[in-house]
Amino acid sequence: MEEFAPRRGTSRHFTTADGVRLHYIEAGDGPVLMMFPGWSQSAAMFRAQIDGLSDRYRVIAVDPRGHGDSDKPDHGYNAHRIAADMRELLLHLDLHDVALLGHSGGVKYLWAYWELFAGERLRKLVIVDDSPRLVDNPAWSEASRAEIGPMYFTGDLDRFAVQLMAPDGAAFTDVAIKSMFGPGFVANNAALMDWIVAENLKMPRALAIELLYATSGVDWRGTIRRVRLPSLVIGAEGSTHKATVLRWVAAQIPGARLRIWGREEGGSHFMFIESPDRFNAELAEFIGA
């Protein structure tokens, strides 16, 4: 399915302090935009951003450990280790004033980076469609639950993990991924959807579960309230993450810009794939020169 790979960019690698060889795609010159994909996804899924924005930015899309074409080690599957990998890459490339984008589970790496290093080497943040915590806490008040918008309640995450590890785990992944897109988009882009699922399956299901358990129960609200960088917070009416939650996230960051995508404009969890030209234009307008 090479026709769906980014047309621009060069595949590069670097090795982390704990010996993991990470893959990233780099294209263009100018201000730096570094992007981290969501749980189990790949850098190549930012194909439209790599191709569409590298005429004005130095675009770097990273496969976190275990994902895409990076090594699949048996350790380090948590947000803070991946945030440390992120900083090592920034140092390796000697990057400054970076606009850092995380999508879905990739947002957790941004929060972890802020906890560890605050705004070091960063200029702006782009938070694309994630909740402050994925797993419900029975002790929460209804107000807390509304802020967080958990996806998983008692037993849900365990059931999800069992289905991923079942003999038909690949088929379950296929259904789960496609459910996060608009139904019309899935129906009209069968080959692209198969490629997206294949990119997700590059991460072994056991490692995907390890990362999911390590990151889903962390409550990032306290960290979010301490962010002090210009930020763009993006949600979608057609996403599994409630738009009200992204509104709450934006309200915690002084001066943050909020964008909620409507269903009619490709506003699913993957709006950057469904409506790439509009997404790129709005992203470029926020990042600036």
From TrEMBL:
Cellular component, GO, one term: membrane
InterPro entries attached to this UniProt entry: AB_hydrolase_1, AB_hydrolase_fold, AB_hydrolase_sf
Pfam families found in the cross-reference section: Abhydrolase_1 (PF00561)
Residues annotated as transmembrane: none
A single GO molecular function term of this UniProt record: hydrolase activity
Keywords: Hydrolase
Record domain AB hydrolase-1: where: 31-276
Protein name: Pimeloyl-ACP methyl ester carboxylesterase
Organism whose genome encodes this protein: Prosthecomicrobium pneumaticum
